[in-house]
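note to self: dont lose this again. the chain is below, predicted strucutre after it. 191 aa total, dont forget to put it in the shared folder this time
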Amino acid sequence: MTRLLWNTSDCPPSWGLPTRRVSPQFNWYCLHTKPQKEAQVAAFCRDNLQLETYFPKLRQYRTIRRVRKLVTSPLFPRYLFCRFDPAISYRAVRYAPDTLDIVHLGEKPAVVEDNLIKDLKDWAGDAVDIISLRSPLTPGDHVEITAGPMRGLSATILHSHEDRDRVAILLSILQHGAQLTISRSQIRRCD
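---
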């Protein structure tokens, strides 16, 4: 479906229309959807409205009914990104099936920077819109602290929670053990 903009500069001057040339302003916007309807809204916008969409998903290990499984879930549940010009497609996107709203800042739709979308796509790598976290840390893994006052020290993972960003580690300092809870971003696995 091709969208045409009315170009008033082609109209005769007797019509009294402004002669400003209209150019589309395609930016990324964030759409708020009904629960678990992100994929349907993305497909509708992409297939029916001919708009570019980005629906990043996260692949991670989760324990479901005491079984550890690799699952794919939305990176931002109930949200996805769509690139469109509000002057042309605002109503079509806003009232698309299963769309609750377009995220606003004040009275205007909030523009999402192209750099953010590019960074998310770079993070996903070759996988289409799927972002994988580094391999999970399990008790007994040897890690090195990479940030903070304990940088450079080795430790052993005591326990970790997949749904939290923190792990409990055991530091070996001067032949004594010290337990510490630290952010996952401050450690890396020793191979």
